From TrEMBL:
Domain of life of the source: Bacteria
Residue ranges, compositional bias (Low complexity): 118-136
Name listed for the protein in its UniProt record: Helix-turn-helix transcriptional regulator
Lineage of source species: Bacteria, Pseudomonadati, Thermodesulfobacteriota, Desulfovibrionia, Desulfovibrionales
Region described as Disordered: spans on this chain: 118-155
Domain HTH hxlR-type intervals: 17-116
């Protein structure tokens, strides 16, 4: 017999199961890519994030960064200088999602291998990492050479 989930509340969000809550915090087209880039590249400025993700609008990047900061997944540091300098980095909670994103990337590689690709270009030409070799060892550590950044224009 299947039991119904009950409505829960956490951090201003309503949800029925923890997966739904997770997707509210890190889901969407841009948040996983923002989190991955900060995890791989460390602290980045707004302009650096825009350069890494050329298809995101300034408004959308600002919105996504504010939501991630509000949820405690990233830290925003404002330096009092002219012009103002703002840097973004992952919090401990933000770093804890990197293994999840790594597994999602591995799943994407498997899906790609199973279904093939069409009309793709060499990701390195666009400044993105390429997929690891199919026989690469499976480790618990996040991949540093993967193509999650490649998803920017494809998600």
């Amino acid at each position: 017999m299947v039991t119904a989930c009950t409505l829960k509340h956490c951090a201003g969000k309503e949800y029925y199961c923890s997966l739904e809550l997770t997707l509210q915090v890190i889901g969407g087209k841009w948040k996983p890519i923002i989190l991955w880039r900060l995890g791989q590249d460390g602290t980045l400025r707004f302009s650096e994030l825009r350069r890494i993700m050329p298809n995101i609008t300034q408004k959308m990047l600002t919105q996504q960064l504010r939501e991630l900061e509000s949820d405690g997944v990233l830290h925003r540091e404002v330096y009092p200088q002219v012009p103002p300098r703002v840097e973004y980095s992952l919090t401990e909670m933000g770093r804890s999602v990197l293994p999840v994103l790594s597994e999602m990337c591995k799943w994407g590689h498997a899906f790609e291998a199973n279904h093939g690709t069409a009309g793709t270009t060499d990701g390195r030409a666009a400044g993105h990492a390429t997929a690891p070799a199919a026989d690469a060892p499976d480790t618990d550590a996040p991949d540093t050479d993967n193509d999650l950044g490649m998803a920017v224009g494809e998600v």
